[in-house]
Amino acid sequence: MAIRYNESSRSFQLDTKAASYVIGVVDAEGFVGHAYFGKKLGEDDVTYLMRTGEGPYTPETNARDRLSFLDSFPMEYPTGGIGDFRESAIVVRSSGGHRALQLTLDSYEIFKGKKPLEGLPATWGSEEDTETLELVLTDKVLKVKAILSYSIFEGIDAVVRSVKLINESDAPVFIDRIMSASMDMDNRDYDKILLTGSWARERRIDRTPVNYGIQGMSSLRGEEGHQTHPFMALLDRTATEDAGDVYGVNLVYSGNFLTLADRGQFDTVRVMTGINPEGFCWKLNPGECFQAPEAVLVYSAEGLNGMSHAFHDLYREHLIRGQYRDRKRPILINNWEATYFNFNTEKLLDIARQASKLGIEMLVMDDGWFGNRFDDNRALGDWFVNEEKLPGGLKYLVDEVNKLGMKFGIWVEPEMISPDSELYRAHPDWAIQVPGRTAGLARNQLVLDMSRREVQDHVFDMIAGVLRSANIEYVKWDMNRPLSDLGSYSLSAERQGELYHRYVLGMYRLQERLTSEFPHILLENCSGGGARFDAGMLYYSPQIWCSDDTDAIERLAIQEGTALIYPLSAMGAHVSDCPNHTVGRTTPFETRGYVALAGTFGYELDVTKIPEADRNMIPEQVAMYHKYNDLVRTGDYYRVASYQQNHMYDCWMVVKKDRSEALVTFIQVMGRANAHSRRILLKGLCPDKTYRIEGEERTYLGSTLMQAGVLVGNLWGDFKGKLIHIVEA
Ligand code: DGJ
Which of the residues are catalytic? Predict the structure, then answer.
């Protein structure tokens, strides 16, 4: 890992483990261009790739053709209004109303380590394992400065970027658009992968060619949403799971985003990601700065699995924080699908008594414990215990649960307010709404104006009071509706365009307070299932609820799409009861366990009511979790076969970093008549090592397991699963 500046070629080269990223500076004015991102280079100068010498377009030799230059130059951070007619990364409006910005290099700095991003989640690193390049670009007319920051990490093929804009003039400017990263790539007939979906169908993989024009994904929901995701992969059309060039782009942000690719007239592709400019406008007063969120760019020469490894390693080692980052999480049982709103202390204790005997380690009390919350039409914001449901209060319940040897966790939804709540009756202006209009309800609730300090502080004090009132060791932070009817009673007219982003900053501030004042609490984020499973939230919580769909078969696709970017250690996954509450499907209890094992693992059912045979299987599943979770949490994950593609079966594996152990999970979705065994080629093992498959006498070379494979016998029935445990002999 190294960053160096080459004086003679006027270029910066960032070398990671196996990749290089090259930035060039051209012409007397100092335009900053993107020269290369790909397989690691030697010392050679590759700035010729910026093609500044082609045609009469060189600004130095023919200033009249500045527009031709700007129209094709691979700009590192393209600006709007001066003649680059492709998508702009940044558009700044002067106080005179003009939108023109020309950013050229002023200075640079290379240093060890990495600075935090004020108020925003971001990757972090030490002076030993992280290096940063900062390019300072200025517009000499507007007197604004942009600091482009690039960091690289030991052993990981990723470049993380961010942008900070500083107004050094004596008049305000307005930021209409500020992307976190932009990259101009030569087109090599790329495909793109986007993650699409809906509630209970999050993050489905969608691979299509990169066509001419603008394509991509965005959100205007105030969060990433179930439907869209701030991610795009660009990959060689021939790239597979294990071979070929893949570029992954992901935004460390939890609000409105835009991620796009723009294939243009010279067959180059401009890819960018950042805050969605729609609904965004930020007034920057003299002397103020604006920090845009961080974007992660990953390169893999080893197909999609290589891309996933880079994201997983980066997020596990340089994004997730807190005491649970590297620890096995307690096996929890959550009462949502067990009782919904219909519970009381006795019911919860019944569940806990039974669960504790089976080896389950924590009871999580979900929605419905506070205020007048007997259904989902009321009481959000009233964060005090409903004594009718919980006589004796929280302390009594938690103490009783603790006496059983179990931890206790609680559900909250801090960002919301029900019109039917004491909070709304006291502070109707705390809800986001447009004056004079009736704000649209979703799940009968409104959203609190988290841009306001007094709202943040009130919510924090209420929730902190609850957390201090008993021995609470886990919090599930939910968010069950998107933002709409954007209006804040506290922002001036010219600042209403800041509300979406200020909301996210307020929510981040609350999460930061919660995690720093209650460092012992395990935080799990959630949003109506998986609408906020993003890198921003991972900075605050080491795990996120993946989807409200707990059906083992639906989860194959949801978890496959999620694991394209995020480590298995972060994926909230539970065994639930059947028929499944979302799709009505009945699957074997055993299979539900195998699928949940690929995530955080827990239960979401009424353990006092499930079939006895299922209940009897829980101690075995608990033992399975304890046996494999270290491997699942820390190993390299490989997609082996996808049910989404073959419509028959699914298979993935996790390999220990030192290649001494692996766990293969095979799920036969559809049974097949008269079928022979399936031959599965394993991945990621050491070819020369000798391995044993647990339960077999003989040994195999790693090369045999990967090239000849293993045979998995036909399992009788649908939705059957099998684990194959491989250890070095
Ligand atoms: C949505 C979550 O995803 C569920 O798990 C549950 O907590 C409900 N909200 C409660 O309202």
Answer: 478, 548
Closest ligand 1 atom to residue 336 Cα is 6
Name the burial class of residue 63, with classes exposed (0-12), middle (13-18) and buried (19+) by CB atoms within 10 angstroms of its CB: exposed
Q: Tell me how far the alpha carbon of residue 445 lies from the centroid of ligand 1, in angstroms.
A: 14
Each residue of 392-417: pLDDT tens digit? 999 999 999 999 999 999 999 999 99
The structure tokens 């006027």 sit at 10
Instruction: Indicate if 203 and 84 belong to the same structural domain.
Output: yes
Residue nearest to atom 2 of ligand 1 (CA): 528
d(CA 413, ligand 1 centre) in Å: 9
Enter the pTM of the model. 0.98
The pLDDT tens digits for 349-394 are 999 999 999 999 999 999 999 999 999 999 999 999 999 999 999 9
Query: How far from the centroid of its chain's Cα atoms is residue 630's Cα?
Result: 22
H/E stretch holding 249: strand 246-252
The answer for residues whose C-beta is within 8 angstroms of residue 62's C-beta and 6 or more apart is 56
Q: What is the DSSP string of 562-618?
A: HHTTS-GGGEE--EE-SS-TTT-----HHHHHHHHHTTT-EEES-TTTS-HHHHHHH
Mark whether 621 and 488 lie in a shared domain: yes
- What angle is formed at CA 645 by the lines to CA 237 and CA 244, rounded to 5 degrees? 25
**Which atom of ligand 1 is closest in space to residue 529's alpha carbon?**
3
Same domain, 225 and 205: yes
**Cβ atoms of 195 and 225 closer than 8 Å:** no
Domain of residue 665, residue span: 640-728
CA–CA separation, 506 vs 457, rounded Å?
10
How far apart are the C-alpha atoms of 490 and 478, rounded to whole Å? 25
Q: How far is CA 91 from CA 281, 282, 494, in A?
A: 10, 11, 17
Domain boundary among 578, 612, 634: 634
User: What DSSP character marks residue 455?
Assistant: H
pLDDT in tens, 591-617: 999 999 999 999 999 999 999 999 999
Domain of residue 676, CATH code: 2.60.40.1180
In degrees to the nearest 10, what's the CA dihedral of 212, 269, 275, 599? 100
Q: Are 255 and 263 in contact (CB under 8 A)?
A: no
Tell me the pLDDT tens digit for each residue of 138-195. 999 999 999 999 999 999 999 999 999 999 999 999 999 999 999 999 978 999 999 9
Cβ(46)–Cβ(37) below 8 Å: no
Same domain, 273 and 356: no
